[in-house]
From TrEMBL:
One of its GO terms (biological process) is 3-keto-sphinganine metabolic process. PANTHER family: 3-KETODIHYDROSPHINGOSINE REDUCTASE. Gene3D superfamilies: NAD(P)-binding Rossmann-like Domain (3.40.50.720). GO terms for molecular function: 3-dehydrosphinganine reductase activity; nucleotide binding. InterPro entries: KDSR-like (IPR045022), KR_dom (IPR057326), NAD(P)-bd_dom_sf (IPR036291), Sc_DH/Rdtase_CS (IPR020904), SDR_fam (IPR002347). Belongs to the short-chain dehydrogenases/reductases (SDR) family. It comes from Candidula unifasciata. The keyword Transmembrane helix applies. This is 3-dehydrosphinganine reductase. SUPFAM superfamilies: NAD(P)-binding Rossmann-fold domains (SSF51735). It comes from the Eukaryota. The chain crosses the membrane at residues 6-26. It is found in: Endoplasmic reticulum.
Length: 337
């Protein structure tokens, strides 16, 4: 390398070190899970239950919220086995309520949870469900249901918790979106829209609550092996299956670990796996910055990731075209016979 090469390298290294040193200036102070009250909606199953287990392992008191009482009780038994502390304050509590129905019953249920385990420090909005199908095959009520369960549930739960968090000047709120909340994919017209809605909510709310030391995390998990996922597989169009298979299948434990550690440090975007990182950098848009390092990575990688995304898009288009050819030829041969 020439002398100028070495100088450029040295400048680059100094730049990275300065960024690294300055980064904490704009990053939120971490919030400890030990002795915190973590309320997990959808905590009786899948990713929500895995989040509850991780939180309990790290010393938190946990409230699980879902509808089905039997499933809640079973989850409580399981989560309780991970209690680490000897003193009796580390407990697992359950609340049965339909989060998508009406706000007053959600507010009442949450008040009860706060009476039992104290003010909520971490609210994790994980309750959700999905429906896949081509636009015209989905019923209009499917669209309403997605908005009610995936979006309104989070609005209700967050509305019930934010005033107390603001008064205490501390808190974390997580919204579990999906990679389908970053890109619209074949078969997900109803689901993607409900998950995109969470992003608008989170960005706007983060601006409002940042002065109160409340930090939001928007998580974008890829396909994760849960009972909800297995249920969804039954109705997914072939195109949707083939397209989402490109990003693999993760375990709920894996996803929960990443979401929880990003929440503790107050990262706005929580993404997992290589294409998750690519998607988050590519679609970061005007989102809040919680680390200078991260902002730099976004600026540097965005153009490159856009180029890579063009290849993905071409690949998805080929899948859709091939499936259509197959469908057309099947329909043709049926007509002939
Ligand atoms: N699994 C994946 O591949 C994947 C990928 C990306 C994002 N996600 C998102 O991650 C979240 C969890 O997914 P999962 O696969 O773990 O789901 P899951 O196993 O089906 O669990 C869903 C949980 O939400 C609860 N719930 C559903 N509707 C509710 C309502 N109206 N009121 C209260 N609780 C309700 C369920 O309990 P009850 O039915 O008893 O109420 C259950 O505890 C969802 O928001 C999902 O969209 C999942
Ligand atoms: C952007 O990419 C970097 C790696 O280059 C990764 O560490 C970071 O978490 C990504 N940012 C987001 C918001 O996912």
């Amino acid at each position: 390398m020439t002398m100028w090469g070495w100088v450029a390298l040295a400048v680059f290294i100094v730049f990275i070190i300065i960024l690294y040193l300055l980064s904490p200036l704009i990053s939120p102070p971490p919030l400890k899970l030990r002795d915190a009250h973590v309320l997990v909606t959808g905590g009786s199953s899948g990713i929500g239950k895995a989040l509850a287990i991780q939180a309990v392992k790290q010393g938190a008191r946990v409230t699980l919220v879902a509808r089905n009482e039997k499933k809640l009780e079973e989850a409580k038994q399981e989560v309780t086995t991970y209690v680490t502390s000897q003193d009796k304050t580390q407990r697992v509590h359950t609340v049965s309520v339909d989060l998508s129905s009406d706000y007053p019953s959600v507010e009442k249920a949450f008040q009860e949870a706060e009476k039992t385990l104290g003010a909520v420090d971490f609210l994790i909005n994980c309750a959700g469900t999905s429906v896949a199908g081509r636009f015209e095959d989905l019923s209009i009520s499917d669209f309403k249901k997605m908005i009610d369960i995936n979006y309104m549930s989070a609005v209700h739960a967050t509305r019930a918790i934010v005033p107390a968090m603001k008064a205490r000047g501390q808190g974390r709120i997580v919204f579990v979106s999906s990679q389908a909340g970053q890109i619209g994919l074949f078969g997900f017209t109803a689901y993607s829209a409900s998950k995109f809605a969470l992003r608008g909510l989170a960005e706007a709310l983060q601006m409002e609550v940042k002065p109160y030391n409340i930090y939001l995390t928007l998580a974008f998990p890829p396909d994760t092996d849960t009972s909800g996922y297995r249920e969804e597989q039954k109705t997914k169009p072939l195109e949707t299956k083939l397209i989402s298979e490109t990003s693999g299948l993760l375990t709920a434990e894996n996803v929960a670990t990443v979401i929880l550690s990003d929440t503790v440090v107050g990262k706005f975007f929580s993404s997992i796996s290589l294409d998750g990182i690519m998607l988050s950098n590519l679609t970061c848009g005007f989102s809040p910055v919680t680390s200078l390092m991260e902002a730099t990575q976004q600026v540097v990688t965005m153009g490159l990731f856009r180029i890579i995304s063009l290849f993905y898009l071409a690949h998805f288009e080929r899948i859709i075209y091939r499936c259509k050819l197959q469908r057309d030829s099947e329909a043709g041969s049926k007509k002939q016979s």
